[in-house]
Design brief:
The protein is an all-alpha fold. The protein has one domain: MFS general substrate transporter like domains (Growth Hormone, Chain: A, Up-down Bundle). Helices cover 75% and strands 0% of the residues. It is built from 22 helices and no strands. Helix 16 packs antiparallel against helix 18 and helix 20 packs antiparallel against helix 21. The protein is globular. The chain starts with a helix and ends in a 12-residue tail after the last helix.
């Protein structure tokens, strides 16, 4: 939602004394602030997730992100309070990013640590449908706000999506409050196998997977904001097409992800995480220049087709494979920290700056997208190489194996055999955890 608003309206509301291009760059700079604090969020909440559990962190990050987003809808603009307006916007954006630093990791782990071993790809991809739903809801509210007059939209219409996020927070709290902790984390607690220094252990035991995972983030994270935010600026300011047309096209490609995300997640269960991830990166690189050519036709059908391919197919192949791959890379006792560090530490160089870089390259190319196209190709190449160098994780154990000296194994009863087969964890010594 913030990315959409930054591309549509924030330059006028918070940086009105600058020309359109400079104002847009400044608006995207405030957007990037959230990504610069994500590494801090990944450290804080990743550690808490491995020490206190997945559920507690998920509730905390939801409140932090949701309350700061709702508060954005109440902000006075530059016309009302001057330079204090963009300063307050930056503060709220930083709080958003802090909560986001471990939000996605927690939701994926909550799902995957319950999932059957042969369905972790499908289950693990499912949380990304929440990302797609968030984008779809924000696009829809901005789309319907376009029925307002220009003055109405700039005065109060843009606030509606942000204020409605309060409803999302309440619904999310209801769902998350009913969750039970994952069987893997309960196993860790029971065996007293939780890590006392998860960050140190991640770097000591899983450094290579961590580095590979960070390399892969250059593609899907950056391209998401090129295709879903920068494209609004390019189509409306450079091609002079109606904002409503590109927003509707983005709604279509986002809605399609409710089919493609679980579809590619299912595919990773069949052929592995790496083949799907690499294929998405290769297709992203190959489609970079054709995508911008389709936009330049100014033909509605061509624009819809281009967005569908790059966003709902190529990018989604990477994001669908990423969730189970990252979760399976790290041992249970440092999994939350490892996942969060792998996904969010690259945020200051991948993701947040992507729209700024794309707008700057567009300006450097005097309106031509050839530099933006090469930027996309470079990101896709880095991602493909990083995935190629990483391990294949399909089918690995997700258990909460203790690091203490092992005890003689007890014979597995029928219920315990079912628990081991279903959750992929060691048998529990507690009779209450049979199945």
């Amino acid at each position: 939602m913030y990315a959409t608003a930054a591309g549509i309206i924030f330059n006028k509301l918070f940086f009105p004394s600058f020309d359109s291009l400079t104002g847009t760059l400044l608006a995207y700079t405030t957007f990037a602030i959230g990504f610069f604090v994500r590494p801090l969020g990944s450290v804080i909440f990743g550690l808490l997730g491995d020490r206190l559990g997945r559920k507690a962190v998920l509730i905390t990050t939801l409140l932090l992100m949701g309350c700061s987003t709702t508060a954005m809808g109440l902000l006075p603009t530059y016309a009302s309070i001057g330079v204090l307006a963009p300063i307050l916007l930056c503060v709220l954006r930083a709080l958003q990013g802090l909560g986001s630093g471990a939000e996605y990791a927690g939701s994926v782990l909550m799902v995957i640590e319950y999932a059957p071993a042969n369905r972790r790809g499908l289950y693990g991809a499912a949380p990304y449908m929440g990302v797609a739903l968030g984008l779809l809801l924000s696009l829809a509210t901005f789309h319907y706000s376009s029925d307002l007059t220009k003055e109405q939209f700039e005065e109060w219409g843009w606030r509606i999506p942000f204020l409605l996020s309060a409803v999302v927070v309440m619904v999310g709290l209801i769902f998350r409050a009913t969750l039970k902790e994952t069987p893997v984390f309960e196993e860790l607690k029971e065996k007293n196998a939780r890590s006392k220094a998860p960050i140190k252990e991640v770097f000591r035991t899983s450094l290579w997977p961590l580095l590979c995972a960070r390399g892969t983030r250059m593609g899907d994270n950056s391209l998401a904001y090129v295709y879903e935010s920068f494209v609004i600026v390019y189509v409306t300011q450079q091609l002079k097409l109606p904002r409503d047309m590109i927003v509707t096209a983005l709604m279509f490609s986002t809605a399609a992800q409710f089919v493609t995300v679980p579809g590619f997640g299912w595919l990773t269960d069949k052929i592995g995480r790496k083949p799907v991830y690499i294929a998405g990166a290769v297709l992203s690189g190959l489609s970079a220049f054709p995508f911008f050519w389709l936009l330049q036709t100014k033909n509605t059908i061509m624009i819809y087709a281009g967005l569908f391919f790059v966003s709902s197919i190529a990018k989604t192949m990477m994001t669908s494979a990423q969730s189970p791959w990252f979760a399976e890379m790290f041992p249970a006792h440092v999994r939350y920290t490892g996942f969060a560090l792998a996904r969010e530490v690259t945020a200051p160089i991948a993701g947040g700056p992507a729209p700024i870089i794309a707008v700057a390259l567009l300006s450097a190319g005097v309106g031509s997208t050839h530099l933006v196209g090469w930027y996309v190709v470079g990101l896709a190449l880095i991602t493909a190489v990083a995935v190629l160098l990483g391990p294949e994780t399909r089918g690995v154990s997700m258990g909460g194996e203790s690091r203490e000296p092992s005890r003689p194994a007890e014979p597995l009863t029928e219920p315990r055999q079912h628990a081991v087969a279903r959750y992929g964890i060691e048998e529990s010594r507690d009779e209450n955890h049979q199945g």
